Amino acid sequence: MLTLNLPSPIQPVTFENHTFYLKRDDLIHPDFSGNKARKFHYFLTHEFPHINKVVSYGSAQSNAMYSLSVLAKMKGWQFEYYVDHVADYLKENPHGNYKAALENRMIIREEGIGSREHFGDNVLFIEEGGRQQEAEYGIRLLAQEIIEWQKEQGIEDFNIFLPSGTGTIALYLQKALCKEGVVGEQRPTVYTCACVGGSDYLKKQFTMLEADNNCHPTILSLPKKHHFGKLYRENYEIWLKLQQQTGVIFDLLYDPLGWRTLLAHTQVLSKPVIYIHQGGVLGNESMLPRYKRKYGM
Ligand SMILES: *Cc1c(COP(=O)(O)O)cnc(C)c1O
User: Could you count the other beta carbons within 10 Å of the beta carbon of residue 141?
Assistant: First the structure.
């Protein structure tokens, strides 16, 4: 049966002379990036007797894709995944999330997904990156774990930071803390940055999930535009530094921009900061060789 390592531990680390509290969601389960373990928690812990297939769409190397292949395998469901395009190089040399998902018998469809209505009642449809309502269930639990920890530690006031793709975790976390996270007078603020698209895109994603923008996370950004999946020397450097100084391996797609953005905002660092490590280290298998080829060690 499925064992989730919950509550995930919180560990103090020092980076660039600041102390941070790492919420180790990367340790929740070896086959789910912590982010996807939270988002799919509802599906992992409930029964769906009428479902025999899960359908989703997105990029050919996504963490969500791999996590869904594991979910499908555990549940005995088929898994059908739609991508616009699989690069020839990847088809000929499968690696990373793509390879691991194929080994879990993912059926890949290189075509548009069309309307979701034509999938019958036996199909569980998952939005790209797991951006959907059911995610709130697992993320409320994340908020409760953080509040419990805060009470144990006797910390009055703190900030939370995590890098965003669709912003689903950041949004539901801030929402949960808005509603229940009051210890003393303070509600913790969730800070995030947009790794996919820009801040405007991320704000739109928040609004799609929650109309009340009083409970939206606070978006921080760097002056220079960032393209998702592109190689940046600064990203590689901070990733190596993180490993040297903290002994923890982070992901190469989200965390480098996350840490760079966080360190650039000293007002956020003026309170204790919980940084949520959302996993994704399996995806490094495709990013790290590209970085090494480009910049060496
Ligand atoms: C999916 C994922 C993200 C993006 O999360 P959102 O909830 O879509 O913002 C960030 N980090 C990792 C490791 C992920 O797997």
Answer: 18
94 Cα: distance to centroid of ligand 1 (angstroms): 22
Place of tokens 């480098």: 256
Give backbone dihedrals phi and psi of 25, rounded to 5 degrees, phi first.
-70, -15
22: left (phi over 0), alpha (psi -120 to 50) or beta: beta
State the distance from the centre of ligand 1 to the C-alpha of 38, rounded, in angstroms. 10
217-227: per-residue pLDDT in tens? 999 999 999 99
- Measured distance CA(170)–CA(182) in Å, rounded: 17
**Which pLDDT score is estimated for 253?**
95
Domains of the chain are 10-30+136-295 (3.40.50.1100), 38-130 (3.40.50.1100)
Ligand 1 centroid, distance to 232 Cα (angstroms): 19
Nearest residue by C-alpha to atom 5 in ligand 1 = 165
User: Is 280 near ligand 1, meaning CB less than 6 Å away?
Assistant: yes
Q: Is the CB of 281 under 6 A from ligand 1?
A: no
Ligand 1 contact via 165 beta carbon (within 6 Å): yes
CA–CA distance, 296 with 119 (Å, rounded to integer)? 47
Instruction: Please state the rounded mean pLDDT for residues 266-286.
Output: 94
Name the residue at shortest CA distance from atom 4 of ligand 1: 165
Burial grade of 297 (CB within 10 A; 0-12, 13-18, 19 or more): exposed
The DSSP output letter for 274 is E
Please tell me if the CB atom of residue 158 comes closer than 6 angstroms to any atom of ligand 1: no
What are the pLDDT digits (tens) for 166-225?
999 999 999 999 986 555 556 899 999 999 999 999 999 999 999 999 899 999 999 999
Q: Supply the residue whose CA is at minimum distance from atom 11 of ligand 1.
A: 278
What sections of the chain are H helices per DSSP? 34-39, 41-45, 63-75, 88-92, 96-103, 135-153, 168-180, 199-209, 233-246, 255-263, 266-269, 284-295
